[in-house]
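Researcher: We're teaching a course module on how sequence relates to structure. For the next exercise, students receive a sequence and then see the predicted structure as tokens, so they can try to spot secondary structure elements on their own. Here is the exercise chain.
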Amino acid sequence: MLKLGPLRLHWSLLLGAALFTALSPHPLLLLGYASVLFAHVTGHALAVAGTRLSVNGVMLHALGGELVGEGEVTPLRRSLIALSGVLAQLALLAGAALAVRHLPPDLAEALIRRNGIVLLLNLIPVKPLDGAQAWRILPRLAAANRARTLRGRIVVREVPPSSQIEKEVTDLLDKIRNSTKVR
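Model: And here is the predicted structure for the students to work with:
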């Protein structure tokens, strides 16, 4: 692994570039590969905004990239973060497909077809690919919805101030004492 400040380049990045370009590293294919990686990592970064995660670096590897940091997030947010990298790639693919007539053929190939292949590979539900967490979003959304529904059914009673409680306990004790006196 090569560290360049907060950027970490995994050895598989070279393998990914070779596979992405089909061993013919044309400049526009390489630019497309870099664009796909950038979109993927940017998607993750946008999903991390507003969480308790502190990101201190980016690791780029053959199938995308990961944010390096620490902190805890909910399982649902973890799925959203994983899915966001793939969604960013999908947005790049859709934008390129709309502009395909205006793109050089190699760049269009990289941003549409080859990006689509990497996107689908990333959705395989196997660690460390994003699909391992992304596909869990459906049951996690269902669980969050059930929890929200249950919270809506629970009636929360306000707790009276301690002075009110003391008065009620005193009154109750007086009633008990008065009821036990022989008449």
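Model: If you want an answer key for the exercise: The chain has a mean pLDDT of 83. The longest strand covers residues 54-61.
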